Amino acid sequence: MVNQVNGENDNSEEILTNRQGHPVTDNQNVRTVGNRGPMTLENYDFIEKISHFDREKIPERIVHARGAGAHGYFESFGTINGEPISKYTRAKVFTNTEKQTPVFVRFSSVVHGGHSPETLRDPRGFAIKFYTEDGNWDLVGNNLKIFFIRDPLKFPDMVHSFKPSPVTNLSDPERMFDFLCQTPESMHMVTFVFSPWGIPANYRQMQGSGVHAYKWVNEEGKAVLVKYHWEPKQGIKNLSQQEADEIQSKNYSHATQDLYEAIEKGDYPEWELYVQIMEDGEHPELDFDPLDPTKLWYKEDFPWHKVGRMVLNKNPENYFAEVEQVAFGTGVLVDGLDFSDDKLLQGRTYSYSDTQRYRVGTNYLQLPINRPKTHVATNQDGGQMDYRQDFGKLKNPHVNYEPSLIGGLKEVKNPGKEHQPFVEGNLVRERISRENNFGQAGETYRRFNDWEKNELISNLSGALASCRKEIQDRMVDMLTQCDPDYGKRIAEGIKEAGKTAESKMEDAVKQAQEMGEPSDPY
């Protein structure tokens, strides 16, 4: 390539420039009056460089701050038990088996900050952005298939209780259990989180789930409830607390490193997508509400149907531009997919997109990682960082409203009959009628292997040991309602953990007394 300035041969792509495209001739020294004198105000390169540096971070996600991601594709198998999948949904991402749908996946931990260890006990986010031929679809879920709460009004309080104290900035289990011991529906999730399922070994060997019940809608506008499950072809692997501690002492980014290195060497991780299907309705025959996100639909009652597979085969080229700025929302659905009346899902649908506008900006959907791969045409314009340049392609760019007789964008015909669920009732502030807060938590405990039970008892009783007795008693009472053996072992574990903590404190005091004065290396 020929340099247009001096005619010398060089590779202009390797020339350092500032943000205006000006070549930088000295990136080591600011301009001063003499080599020891004060800086001058016209240090443009420095001012531009440092001003951008001061602003190069955006607000961290309130939850799911620590994450890793990768690009890949999704393939639909097109059938369910030999029947066309179109019987249940008209969504092209499932009915069109002749093309691969590009995806971007972000894995994350939930509670802790952006530089926290990936070995901490915490649910893991599992969010997929499908760049479908009908626009984007975001399936935003977790590795675990349930959640702590069922009402979105509780979400800010739940997260606050899990986060460090606003006074000390230290994590305090008592704050968390103070909230949980008054939230009976959380016992099922507590049982999972404090078992080995609370620390996945890495992202590649981790399940994914949509958590909520969604709806599929077919050409006739008929709907069924569905739940989504991602099963890793690499197998599922979780960590004991001891294994996690050993990893954390050497590497606090082990899961990010594992994912990146696997893809770089061509060992592409793969997941199979399964769905459970249930007729839309209240299902009075069940002892729980099928819309309750704290409950499982057991596969022996509602079989898993394999409907597709996902492969991740490309690492991000820039972490900030892709993994940090990617923005998901549970409201991002395409034709043939719909919401259920799950209260928590509907609360998330507002919250997720709202937080992206705050965190990334009004025009976050114009960023390459978030932009659909299909044509976008909207009358929304303006706002900070609106950088579209296709205005001249409109037949009448003067018309930025609808309807119009003189040009502008037009509505399209609905590709199928609109789903019209019947809704009737008084506006109330009430809990759902079939809470059954403890049944499935006890069933999950009984289904665990012995080593998983032992880990659960050790981890949960150890965390509760530092809490005041009132909180311990409430937790033991609720866990006993889940399963008598569960509650009994936790009560015993708390007493044992308390004795162990006292013994360790005595040993630490004795050791400190035996240590000499520190040296003065200065």
Would you kindly provide a brief summary of this structure?
α11 (450-464) packs across α13 (484-514) and α12 (469-482) packs antiparallel against α13 (484-514). The chain is 29% helix and 15% strand. The protein has helices at residues 44-54, 92-95, 155-162, 173-180, 187-193, 241-248, 254-264, 319-324, 343-359, 439-447, 450-464, 469-482, 484-514; strands at residues 67-76, 79-80, 83-84, 101-109, 124-132, 135-142, 208-209, 214-217, 223-232, 270-279, 305-314, 337-338.
Describe the structure.
- The protein is α+β, with helices and mostly antiparallel strands and 522 residues long.
- It contains 13 helices and twelve strands.
- Strands 1, 4, 5, 6, 7, 8, 9, 10, 11 and 12 form a ten-stranded antiparallel beta sheet that branches. Strands 2-3 form a two-stranded antiparallel ribbon.
- The N terminus is likely disordered.
Structural features:
alpha+beta; disordered N terminus; 13 helices; Cytochrome C Oxidase, Chain J; 12 strands; 3 domains; two-stranded antiparallel ribbon; ten-stranded antiparallel β-sheet; 522 residues; Catalase HpII,  Chain A, domain 1; single chain; 29% helix
